[in-house]
Amino acid sequence: MIKIDHLTKRYSDTLAVDDLDFEVKPGVVTGFLGPNGSGKSTTMRIILGLDHATKGQATVNGTRYAELRDPLREVGALLDAKAVHPGRTARNHLRALAASNQIKKSRVDEVLDFVGISSVANKKVGTYSLGMSQRLGIAGALLGDPGILLFDEPVNGLDPEGIKWIREFFRALANEGRTVFVSSHLMSEMAVSADEIIVIGRGRFITSGSVDDLTKNAEGTVLARASDHGKLAALVVSHHGVVHDASDDGLTIGGLTSDQVGQLAFDAGLTVFELTPQRASLEEVFMDLTAGAVEYGSQKRDPAGG
Amino acid sequence: MASDSTLMASTRAEWIKFRTVRSSVMGVAVTVLLTIGLGVLITTLVRTHWDQLSPLRVATFDPVSSSLRGSLFAQFAVGVIGTLFITSEYTSGSIRTTLTAVPNRIRLIVSKCIVLFITTLILGEFVCFAAFLIGQRIYLGVVPTASIANGTVLRSVILAGLYLTLLALFAFALGLILRQSAAAISVFVSVLLIVPIIGFFFPQNWQNDFMRFEPSSLGVSMESPFAPSNTFGAWSATFVLLAYVVATLAIAFVLFQRRDAGSNQ
Fold first, then answer.
1. A2-216 to CATH, choices 3.40.50.300, 3.30.310.50, 3.30.1490.20, 2.40.160.40
2. Which of A80, A144, A211, A213 is close enough to A72 for a disulfide, judged by CB 3.0 to 4.6 Å?
3. In chain B, which residues touch A (CB < 8 A)?
4. Are A50 and B100 an interchain contact pair (Cβ–Cβ within 8 Å)?
5. What is the per-residue pLDDT across A84-116, written as a single tens digit (0 to 9) for each?
6. What ipTM was predicted for this assembly?
7. Domain A219-279 adopts which CATH fold?
8. Backbone phi, then psi, for B249, in 5-degree steps?
């Protein structure tokens, strides 16, 4: 279990993490979601004792990481796949890691095999593609057979096959009862790979819950196509609804249910050709939640996107 | 506090890391080449020009330090070994992986120092003994030679090797403070080459006081059987240099303990 206890981190004049407080439980894949620059990596670095917290603390299994005796046996982490000396071979890199935590040498070949880079294990890491480096990073994280695993943006640089592989791999780790904590700035990725999601923006906690909970609570929209879009739009607005998007193809209406829109149209004598409730995608929920929490947002959101 | 077994483990890991990158292997090769190669070159030149030397040069000639001169060039190679042993962790970002495996920072630095000390001590002593013995063989029959059986001579050769070891640790400490290869190597070279030049502009009476504290003249004192005038004796010079190394390492460690290692800032 990972426990984040009122954690705050300030770098000179920027507040990277602002009073974060949550727990990551074993047995499920927990997604750590936020836009780029929202403090996910900083939080992970503090969990691993790489950066010092300004206030509060992070503990793993009740202990601060820096106090663990052989930390790789308890926590495996992949923060930055390229954080390896480029002139060293993958095997020697893992061998040194194994030696530092008194892990037996044979384990190096096991993890190399598992991630599928045995054939290039004697090549210098500098020659690796990002995908191969990611696999090496995963091998390093698994070396001590730890009960807690942290991955920072693990799908970056992986091909579709690798992404599929890593999702199944996270699932398998969680099913074994391990704590799996995975960060991403991609909601769509988290929607398929995580069970629980913690959303942060600008270093602050926004919300958490299961993927289903998050979308259930989110406001849906209604797509309506009727004989007079202008009239329908005016009706919607006068009944405290919102027209998000209007075109010849129809109106995207928020704030009202499909039943309410249907009734409005019927009462006004409009012919309705289509009336479709649209459940907010996780992506939209994320955009709504983190709007205003994006450090370098574009001026205007593309209405068709999102 | 780390137990002995974990210190042993992290030291073993640092040893694997030390020997599995080309920069250390190259640094060792260059140190051997410079100390022994330049030693052969210098002693051969002395032998061939011996009859042309002035009586004063002949009277003050020292077969020990002249055969060890190559080590004053090799000091730059051991400096690079020491610097890169830590700065390459920062330039590649591997310091984050290293600290995840060994989060106890004092244990990590002690392990690195142990590895660096042992390897450069073996290296330094090997090249200095080799350069001395080969040099005396070259002098034999023409130039007066020194015997390793003489206690003062033995001390000079041993301290010449130790000088290289201490400089490697000094360079390591600079690397830990500056965290950039180019910056650390520049400062290291400046201390050895530029500081004596600055001292040259001082008034004569200050010059002698200042210059003897300068690392490369400490090196000359350490490897000379008889201390040159206005310098420290061999043992005093060793302790002054050791004090520099300990002080620089202490500053480096305090900074290392305090700094964040995760971000590239």
1. 3.40.50.300
2. A144
3. 3, 5-6, 9-10, 12-14, 16-17, 20-23, 88-89, 92-97, 99-105, 258, 260-263, 265
4. yes
5. 999 999 999 999 999 999 999 999 999 999 999
6. 0.90
7. Alpha-Beta Plaits (3.30.70)
8. -65, -40
